Amino acid sequence: RSMLMPDGSLIVNVARTGIAKLDWDGNLQWKLAGEYHHDVNYDDEGRVYALFERTIDAGPEGAGVKIRDDAIVVVSPEGKVEDQLWFSELFADYEPYQQALEKAAKKKRRKPWDIFHGNSIEVLKAHPAGLWEDGDLLTSLRSRNTIAVISRKKREVIWTWGPGHLKRQHSPSVTVDGKIVVFDNRHGPKKSRVLVVDPVKKEITFSYVGTKDRPFYSETRGISEGLDNGNLFVVSSNQGRLFELNPEGKIVWEYFHPESFKSKREPIRGSRIEGALYEAIKARLDAAGTASQP
């Protein structure tokens, strides 16, 4: 997905092609070509964080296993690459990753394997219980059914959760009180769910699975985010559906994309614009005389 920044600029993410930064008027500020994919984000200093992919040899020596290795690439405000955090190095000792490599070696798998499938990035603020610091990174490894926090300073994984609970998840994010929201795509047959997880206890504190009248399922894609008011914003992409949930799991509002293709609604994505970002963008729209009521 692409990302709107508080200064009105837009980080554009064209899958497997590159990323670029456009200013408020659409002028190109910088661009980087390459195997960028899935997600971008930014920090308070204007650095951009993007997922990038390469193919490497992995597993036991001589096994011939090739994997698609993901990295979080850190880009300066001027468009220069400052750092690359490669998952094959960060998760080298992670047991689910090691088990997957061993299985691939036994099967003599030769085709490059999407062993991580990183699909999201969030730049974190310090956790109230000290689990992570400002600037640490929350990401999702779809193929390993894992969400994880990476310390950029220490260059190591400091928190993981998911195997046995998640299946092909997307878009973990942190709420204002330090919990993690995640879109669990394949909880059951034709069934997704949105979870809120206490990262200290590693316990699920909230789960939404839809109802008979309002089934909830997006086999791929999907976004769930905590809002400042304590509600949850959910994008059920493959249903062409956006909705907001209150803490009791009741739908506050919902929207269905009107377009369809082959009897199915067109997949959509969406994101929240609130708080400081909302105020910054609204100020720009007010100045231009084009702001509408929130």
What is the radius of gyration computed over CA atoms, rounded to a whole number of angstroms? 19 Å
Q: Low-confidence spans: pLDDT under 50, at least 5 residues?
A: none
Distance between the termini: 23 Å
Query: Given the C-alpha coordinates, what overall shape results?
Result: globular
User: Helix count?
Assistant: 3
Describe the main β-sheet briefly.
4 strands, antiparallel
Based on secondary structure, the structural category is mainly beta
The overall pLDDT, averaged over residues, is 92
Helix content estimate = 10-25%
Strand content: 35-45%
What is the strand tally? 22
The SSE order reads: EEEEEEEEHHEEEEEEEEEEEEEEH
Strand order of the largest sheet: 1-2-3-4
What topology does this entry show?
Blueprint: E1 3-4, E2 10-14, E3 18-22, E4 28-33, E5 36-42, E6 48-58, E7 65-75, E8 81-86, H1 87-90, H2 95-106, E9 118-123, E10 137-141, E11 146-151, E12 156-161, E13 170-174, E14 180-188, E15 191-198, E16 203-208, E17 223-226, E18 232-236, E19 241-245, E20 251-256, E21 260-261, E22 264-265, H3 275-288
Antiparallel strand pairs: 1-2, 2-3, 3-4, 5-6, 6-7, 7-8, 9-10, 10-11, 11-12, 13-14, 14-15, 15-16, 17-18, 18-19, 19-20, 21-22
Written account of the structure:
The model has no long low-confidence stretch (mean pLDDT 92). β3 and β4 form a beta hairpin. This protein is mainly beta and 294 residues long. It is globular. A 4-stranded antiparallel β-sheet has the order 1-2-3-4, with no helix packed on it. It has a 4-stranded antiparallel β-sheet with strand order 5-6-7-8. A 4-stranded antiparallel β-sheet has the order 9-10-11-12, with no helix packed on it. It is built from 3 helices and 22 strands. 10% of the residues lie in helices and 44% in strands.
